[in-house]
Amino acid sequence: MKKLTLPVLKNTSKAPDTLTISRINKLADEFFKSNPDSTYYYGNLEIKLSEKINYQMGIADGTNQLAVVNTFHGNYATAAKNYKLALNIYQKINNIRGISKCYIGLGRIQNYLGNYDNAINLYNKALVLSKKGNAADLSECYNLLGITYDNKGDFSKALDYYFKSLTIDIRLKNNLSAANKYSNIGTIMQQLELYPKALGYYNHALRLCEQLDNQQGISTACRNIGETLIAQKDYKSAIGYLNRASKIFNKLNDYEGTSLIYYNLGLYNYYTHHTNSAIHYLKFSLKTAKQNKIKYNRANTYVGLAQVYNAEKDYQQAYNYAVKGQIIATRLKSLSVMTDAALQASEALAGLKRFKQAYRQHKLYSVLKSDLKHNESIHKVMLYNLEMDFANKQKDIINKQYQTESIYQKKIARQKNQDIIYAIIIVVMATLVVVYYNEKRKQQKINSLLAEKNRETILHQENLSIQTAKLNELNLLKDRLIGVLAHDLRAPISTLRGLFNLMTDDAITSEEFIEMTPKVFSTLEHTSDFLDTLLFWINSQVDRSENTIKSFYIDDLITRELVHMEDKLKQKNISVHVKMATDAIALADPNAIRIVIHNFLTNAIKFSNRNGIIEATSYVQDAEIMFCLKDNGVGMSDEFLNTLFKSQVNSSKGTENESGTGMGLMFCKDLIEKHNGKIWAKSTLGVGTELCFSLPVGDNSELRY
Question: How far is CA 606 from CA 99, 410, 496, 650, in A?
Fold first, then answer.
């Protein structure tokens, strides 16, 4: 992908095309998993190039890429502006998938900020759009709704959405997305204290991410496994997973992941009696969560610090952190964090000998714990039903795959039987061919004896025919050469003669003569260069001793010809619009093709009205380079158009009485067809004419022109 966009990446001043911009957008997507900063670079580049050609889709896609990276780095205000700008463009061009992506992005920001109801509302808007289109997008919407309900503590709804999403991923064989869902389901198992089940889902996610070498997924799975092992008090096993996750989060600059992993490392050090290290990690986690406005992480870290300070008997500090945790958890409506915060506040108040308040906090803790246990019981029943339903869907998918495989195997078996029958038929036919061939050879020997006497006469006649054809070809070449020379040398010679007449008649001053001289020299140089090219081609036709076929850029030829025909264009004030594909590399003799382009331009100028417009375009289609030159001149009738490439035609006068030989387009046809190309024309009387040719595609690794 990067190789295909290399010409634009090296020269961003060159006008891009929408295909290149689309490839840059795909590059931005690919880099996000391993290097988000590269995604940011390519997103900005996509916007810059799209603005040059007013490509709204490209501007929206690039802005969406910036929003994704800003969200990843915790720049939520900037990310929200990016998403809203992209959403406005997508809505104007009615791009359903783009609108859905923006709703999802804005929902993520609301989720990170703890505004769960707002996030759910945005995700549901995206869900409605996704049901009409892409199944992978639908899976992502289900997953995000699951995460948001998980954060709210509504595990039943979260699991329902997770399993819906996972079923789609398995059907689509999207292993990376499936790994994410396994991790999310494991998180709920962990919160329900179903640790063996949680580890099973986490390890499944880790294996898939390792197979795909997805660093983000590996780090998340390792953190989850480490946290679950801490809950099981297997601290020795936990630290290896936590350290592995920490390295990857820091390398990716994943602030949310960094905040979470330092929270886990803080708890690990607390449980292994390294209090100072525990406080250090928890405060670092809190700092990162504050900087990036990750409210859920802040609430957890406050409760973690309260737990450590209670253990150290610094009850005032413990109480302060517990209260902060309670406030955020209440806003987030997180029942589990509210329960843990009430417990730590109760212990801190008891240590401060504020027993009435401690009793109230403990009573609150008991109520919350009872609600949590009740909810957990409901969620466990729901989990059992969802897992059973998921298992049944898995069986259905496997059965369908088995049925598909069985049908495929039967087709293979039938094909093998057909192949055997065909092989037998081929053997029989081959035997018949051998017999026929032997009989034919015998007959040929008899015929050869009869034909021997006529062979010398026929050979002599063939030699005469060949010589006659060569003479005719040379004679035709001579006629064409004279026609082209008369057509293309008359103008510069007339210009030079007129200049000297003016000089002789003292109609211009020496200064004016000196001022006009460079243009005349430029015209003569081009004429000389064109004559050399023409003679070089004629020699190659006569001698056929040098292989002049090579790869070259079509736009180089049109650029050169436009420079040399600038005066002719100015005489009629004709504008030329050039839209050449950057990958339009042809395989032919560039000198011969230059003659064709020169002839196309000459005809376009000749039959264009003053202040006219000429359009030169090229593109790649089906392993061929297409080149077209279109004018908005006088055009031609269908009758005249049908004879254009078939025989010499009577040359018509141009719009300002320019003359020609009528040989040019026949000559062009001969040149193009000798290079395995095609030539054609379209025209409407009074509207204009379009002359086109096609050539085989060249190899950019062999460019020598």
Answer: 51, 67, 20, 15
